[in-house]
Amino acid sequence: MRAIKQSKKLRDVRYDVRGPILVEAQRLEAEGHRILKLNIGNPAPFGFEAPQAIMADIVHHLPSAQGYSDSRGIYSARTAVAQYYQSHGLADAKVDDVFLGNGVSELITMVLQTFVDDGNEILVPAPDYPLWTGAVTLSGGTPVHYRCDEDNGWQPDLADIESKITPNTHALVIINPNNPTGAVYTTEVLQGLVDIARRHDLVIFSDEIYEKILFDGAEHQHTATVAGDDVLCLTFSGLSKAYRVCGYRSGWVLVSGPKHLARDFLEGLTLVANMRMCPNVPAQHAIQTALGGYQSVDELIIPGGRYYDQAMLADRLLNEIPGVSSVRPRGALYCFPRLDPEVYPIADDQQFVIELLRAKKILVTHGTGFNWPDPDHFRLVTLPEVDVLTEAIGRIAEFLEEYRAA
Ligand code: PLP
What we know:
Elements: H1 20-30, E1 36-37, H2 52-61, H3 75-86, E2 98-101, H4 103-115, E3 121-126, H5 131-138, E4 142-149, E5 155-156, H6 158-163, E6 169-175, H7 187-200, E7 203-207, H8 223-227, E8 233-238, E9 251-256, H9 263-275, H10 281-292, H11 297-300, H12 306-320, E10 324-325, E11 334-335, E12 338-339, H13 349-360, E13 362-363, E14 365-366, E15 378-381, H14 386-405
Parallel strand pairs: 1-13, 3-4, 3-6, 6-7, 7-8
Antiparallel strand pairs: 2-9, 4-5, 8-9, 10-12, 11-15, 14-15
Helix pairs in contact: 1-13, 2-10, 3-10, 4-5, 4-9, 12-14
Bound molecules: pyridoxal-5'-phosphate.
């Protein structure tokens, strides 16, 4: 039989967070090494537990969750999502505006498959959560990266966005709070982003999965509330991060704005949703309780709470390393430090991360894996307990010292 090759569609698709760096980590593990994996924002392996009510809900509903559901998701969960946005400034959110998915990831790929025609340009932040770039490419579109400004707390550079708009530009992706930078966008910046979308007739895709992970009084505003009635906005969120159940695969997308102009698109999205039958049904049952119940994430994001303390510790320790500067995260689960190229002349940051892994048995992700153009950043997940995090950053500091001396 002939050799079977992957499709040409995949040729330019990358998802480095789980790419060659992870393969190398797994090879080392197979050799017997213990690797501390700080490449994926997955709370469970670091001792975080889901709220009890969520697990009780899922267990309780298992017997009645054996069949397929409506392909958009169960009615009670979609209603809960609509009500959540109604009470957060979107009075017009309706159950029919909500689609549930196996995590935000599935919804991103479904929405882009439905929306993008060959050659459409989609504005995506740099750095980004790389699924966005990969899913645009896989849908036949062209991701066009706009710069977020490290010197301005990683806020999006509005002038850069404006300069990259062409007649082929169809949508603007916003990730707020941001992975990998931890930035939370100001109201002025959100207004600026919406204004660009309005003037250039762009749809907004707003990924808000970290909306509840906010530090030091940072306030998150739903882009959709800024976009109002005349800019079509798709808001993505889910249970993975605030409710610590990445593995249950449960997320949603809400359509808002001039929905009457999106009828054809929504028919297409329903078709795509039908084709994958429905999202995992037991996990859909957790949504209503999660959104309506006690928000235990609030205990994690204040001083003394693990999300907060670990993020602040990581930020401080990283900034103490010579030649390293890191913008303090205002939310999410990551630090995205810069390695001064004068001190660390890195040509290939994926190779650099692999060398760090081999030498110190710590896995982080290289900045170019987030579509950052220069090989001078890496992303660290701030999920380990403080003693483990201290040890890990200590080993990174050792590696960097050796790198400087070499
Ligand atoms: N969007 C962003 C910005 C993320 O960081 C992640 C996961 O890390 C996702 C989406 C995917 O989330 P889910 O587990 O809901 O698929």
